[in-house]
Amino acid sequence: MATTSRTASRTASTWRNWAGNVTARPVREVTPASAEELAEAVRRAAEDGLKVKPVGTGHSFTAAAATDGVLIRPDLLTGIRKIDRAAGTVTVEAGTPLKRLNVALAREGLSLTNMGDIMEQTVAGATSTGTHGTGRDSASTAAQIRALELVTADGSLLTCSEKENPDVFAAARLGLGALGVVTAITFAVEPVFLLTAREEPMTFDRVTADFEALHAENEHFEFYWFPHTGNCNTKRNNRSAGPAAPPGRVSGWIEDELLSNGIFQVACSVGRAVPAAIPSIAKLSSRALSARTYTDIPYKVFTSPRRVRFMEMEYAIPREAAVEALREVKALVERSPLRVSFPVEVRTAPADDITLSTASGRDTAYIAVHLYRGTPYQSYFTAVERIMTAHGGRPHWGKVHTRDAEYLAGAYPRFGEFTALRDRLDPQRLFANDYLRRVLGD
Fold first, then answer.
1. With 291 labelled, which of 68, 75, 141, 178 sits at a CA distance of 20 to 30 A?
2. Which 3 state secondary structure label does DSSP give 251?
3. pLDDT confidence of 1, banded at 50, 70, 90?
4. How far is CA 317 from the centre of its chain?
């Protein structure tokens, strides 16, 4: 038996996720430096009768990565293995943070086609839970995977793609950590390009009336509605011939740091202490962000710093239901005693072919609700969840929700494909935890 993974293991301390709402006390932690060391750690855990879960940066709000067994930390599984310019792909170690991948690709004159608005997550954590941005034609981070490698429950290393183990590939791109531990991912990339971002305030009535046109006319469209107001902020990102014109250092700091993080943090703290002040704060906040246009490389346009900690729930619904569902959320807030300090975010994605992708088989809109960390969120989230499930909603796998396997089997036409594959790859449920028991059954 190899000693390297034994050397890299240690008695675990309590693990907490980013939002602080999930904690776990594993028996031990392992930090493998290679796929082989990871495979050895999986075999040893099975011999010891312990469950295994990999954990990234803890950006999930669910207990997807929590375990009382062996916690795999991928901190040493980072970096680019290979760039294939002819194929338009990059193969990257599973523990690589998206932030590092984006910077490294830009240095090579390359970019992912689309990405979410946060880039703190590891590539494996982001794809395994369905992280996505917004796009008319380009889909989630997992939909950009062309091949992946994972350690399965018997400790073997399995590679899969559309040509090699295609049934595993269809599911494992968004595998919830249920099929194995991802060790490397091959993404499609393209030559780096420029995006022009146009941010503009717009009324709720106008943005909902023109939603389909705004979606159709822009490669990437999203908007935020400020509860207790009739105001939204919209963002349209489209490819540009240039030249690059990034935000000015001062104006960019004012918008992205002072208003979106610093002053917003203070406003949320005041709102948590004095909920009655929230509607007035929301009216001020919704008017503080002014229209601006800038042009830069993709990750500098798609992503933003997020320093204010919060709780979040997000549902994927058929795109044609987005406006009706959002109007129902607005009516809910207006007729209830709820005081909501965070904007509601609306994004889109085209249908994809990943078994448990929230956009699997249907053009999708995402509606995300947030509350400042430490604020009671259950009543708000429960009421919104009721609206979303009435529209056939699928919860984001990494965000707060109360759905179980019975509901999800009805929401995903290919749910049975995934659970059958899980039965084959992990019959002893080495990679199980309480969250997976709830959402996948046992």
1. 141
2. helix
3. very low
4. 16
Local structure of residue 321 (DSSP, 8 states): G
Q: How far apart are CA 122 and CA 18, in angstroms?
A: 13
Provide the token pair at 28. Answer: 């031990």
Is residue 7 predicted with pLDDT exceeding 50? no
What whole-number distance in Å separates Cα of residue 91 and Cα of residue 150? Answer: 13
Residues 109-162: tens digit of each pLDDT: 999 999 999 999 999 999 999 999 999 999 899 999 999 999 999 999 999 999
Cβ atoms of 412 and 406 closer than 8 Å: no
Residue 197 β-bridge partners: 237, 294
* Contacts of 130 by beta carbon, 8 Å cutoff, 6+ apart: 140, 142, 174, 356, 357, 358, 396, 397, 398
Phi first, then psi, for residue 288 (nearest 5°) are -75, -35
Tell me how crowded residue 127 is: count the other CB atoms within 10 A of its CB: 28
Please state, in angstroms and rounded to a whole number, the distance separating the CA atoms of residues 123 and 108: 18
Output the pLDDT for position 11.
66
DSSP string for residues in 165-219: SHHHHHHHTT-TTSS-EEEEEEEE-EE--EEEEEEEEEEHHHHHHTHHHHHHH-S
Asked if omega into 279 is within 30° of 0 (cis), the reply is no
Retrieve residue 320's tokens.
């044609």
Q: How far apart are CA 103 and CA 109, in angstroms?
A: 10
Which single residue is written with the structure tokens 């590679």?
A: 159
DSSP structural state of residue 319: G
* CA–CA distance, 305 with 324 (Å, rounded to integer): 30
| DSSP annotation of 431 | T
The 10 Å Cβ neighbour count of residue 344 is 20
Name the helix (H) or strand (E) containing 303.
none
Tell me the one-letter amino acid at 427.
Answer: P
CB 80, CB 97: distance < 8 Å: no
Residue with tokens 């965070």: 342
> What digits encode the pLDDT tens for the residues 124-137?
999 999 999 999 99
Structure-derived torsion over alpha carbons of residues 154, 157, 161, 165, reported in degrees to the nearest 10: -40
Over the stretch 257-289, which tens digit does the pLDDT of each residue have?
Answer: 445 556 667 677 777 777 887 877 777 776 767
What string of H, E and C letters represents the secondary structure of 132-168?
A: CCCCCCCCCCHHHEEEEEEECCCCCEEEEECCCCHHH
Got the DSSP string for 3-44?
SHHHHHEEE---EE-TTSS-EE--SEEE--SSHHHHHHHHHH
Determine the Cα angle at 224 with ends 309 and 357, to 5°: 75
On the question of pLDDT at 3 being above 50, the answer is no
